[in-house]
User: Fold this.
Amino acid sequence: MPMNETTPLILAIDEGTSNAKAVLVNELGQVIARGSRPLSLSHPQDGFSEQDPQQIWESTLAAIDQCLAQVDRPITAMAISNQRESVVAWDRNSGELLSPCISWQCRRSTPLCAQLHAQGHEASILEKTGLALDPMFSAGKMRWILDHLENGHARAATGEICLGTVDSWLLYKLSGGQVFATDYSNAARTQLFNLHTCRWDEELLALFAIPLAALPTIQASAGFFAQTVAFGRLPAGIPVMSMIGDSHAALYGQGGFVPGLVKATLGTGSSLMTPMSGPLASTHGLSTTLAWHDGVAATYAMEGNIVHTGAAVQWASRLVAGESLDQLTEQAAQLPDNGGVYFVPALSGLGAPHWQADARGLICGLTEATCGAHILRAALESIGYQIRDVFDAMAQDIGSPLKELWVDGGVTRNRWLMQFLANLLQCPVVRSLSPEVSALGAAHLAGKALGVWADDQALAQLERQRERFEPDNGASMEAHYSAWKKALQRTLS
Assistant:
């Protein structure tokens, strides 16, 4: 179909932890324009991680403006993918912000989680939500906000306060304050959503003391959410036709529609995810989640969340400051080995499959011969080891070996790491060459809702650029992995 003024063009937002991105996607599934703005993350005290919601909004608008300036064609629809579990509170009527954006990385709700664990609620929370009782998830953050706002619980009960994930904050702003909604995938990460009823759960709301009136309505991930009001180059009246959490969107963008595919999104943190036909419970420390609802049916997924991957490399580079991250990474890759150095990046606890919020980071094996490049090498290797931990747990839960791993995200640009990962897993690693897989997944859902693509089979046939890394069968990584497990055990104990 030749491109002209009437062919569909979808504006997809990917609001992550480090950047706000916007891309324009045509009917061939190709990105024809892009914009991006960096975001900052602050740590006001130990264990606290937060962002400025106003900066998130303004950076998103700036990315949209940059993107739309490159193409003179009308937009058919919008799509939103977003960092998950992070929470914002604002006044429903005025839009006034009442809290920072409390990041998914933030551990400020650790005392509440410990209290609920001591009271024996962990098993029921896991059964209903598929999620471990951990500060990563939204419910504890929401409770913290209400506890620290004047008359917070009373105001939330009357509907005066909105408690939302980032997708619902962006939708509220884009619609001029008219719509407060989220989708199934983001709701499933709050620890207030029942996977079996697909609704906010009354018992969980009571347990976390979150009033229903403060939460957004839940919709399918694909379908009409709201119309935009005008902002800069963004015109009024553009329908928002999909919303989905970024890791779920990456799975959809990779074409992971049916069980059997395992993808890993490697960014600030990492997420391994495989689709399932139903909410199968994990017995090896993973999460069960609702991947998306395409307007017809729900697709579930098993997931392992790793808190620090790209963030661990950034942290290590600051620790050995003096050269650029690119220079240090190149030096690390050129080393013959890691010099016996292992880094467990539990900088704010450990996620899957360990779920130990009070674990703290550890670097071990230091000698007089250790240099900064060794520490960077250990940080890079820690990404692979953590992925191996989750990958093995996922294979045990599924009950069969996993044949390959599809990867996406900024960290995957490191080709040395991709080969290390293939050798460590002893299976092919297939890297997406698109830097916008999450945005593409959201765009694909919106296009499916609009009828641009008839079904998942049509989406699966879209061209996707990939690079394949085959394992070196002669590379024995088990001794290194065993040493990692010993370092990990020190951290856990």
